[in-house]
Amino acid sequence: MQTAAEGILFASGEPVHISRICMALDTDRPRAEEALQRLGDYYAFERRGIRLVRMEDSYQLCSAPEYAEIIRRAFEIRKTAKLSQPALEVLAIVAYYQPVTRAQVDQIRGVDSAYTMSLLLDRKLIEECGHLQVPGRPRLYRTTQGFLRAFHITSLEELPPLPGVEEGGQMRLEDNLEQLEPEE
User: If phi over 0 gives left and psi between -120 and 50 gives alpha, with beta otherwise, what is residue 130?
Assistant: First the structure.
């Protein structure tokens, strides 16, 4: 079962949801997850050049981070540009308050975030995920699996708590939504 799961992940090249793996292997989720855990442990223990990465309910084979520079040289890949401070700010707001509108991001930052959000969309760190049910129906944004992969986390629950914000941080933003609606 491990080798079949490995073949699926290798052939995909993209994250594969656990339900698709279970369907392909004709097995239940606990057995599939156990096989994937053993596969991931094998790669880590044997210090292989690839790693099995879990992102929420999906899995993907990726190169081992310690070989990133060597892999870049082999393919003459330029180092990816680092995110600017404004991009990190916008990304943090989207990650903690998602789904969120651009106007909400602008309100929190106090400056226009249109360019920065388009940059994050181009880099596939955030994505559109619907529209807010208010006049004008502004777009809603959330983080992507690419965000999880880039920051080496498996789910948003691994984000550290926001300093000075109680557990109901999302409610604070929703309370401020009234300020975003047009006056009548």
Answer: left
Report which of 42, 37, 39, 43 is spatially closest to residue 66, judged by C-alpha positions. 43
- In this structure, are residues 36 and 21 in contact, taking their beta carbons and an 8 Å threshold? yes
The structure tokens listed for 136 are: 């004008």
**Residue 50, helix vs strand vs coil:** strand
Q: pTM for the complete prediction?
A: 0.59
Q: Which two tokens stand for residue 89?
A: 């700010």
53 sits in which H/E element: strand 50-55
Which tens digit of pLDDT belongs to each residue from 5-25?
999 999 988 899 999 999 999
pLDDT in tens, 113-150: 999 999 999 999 999 999 988 888 999 999 999 898 88
Sorted by sequence, the CB contacts under 8 Å of residue 169 that are 6+ apart come out as 96, 97, 162
The overall longest dimension of the chain from CA atoms, in Å, is 65
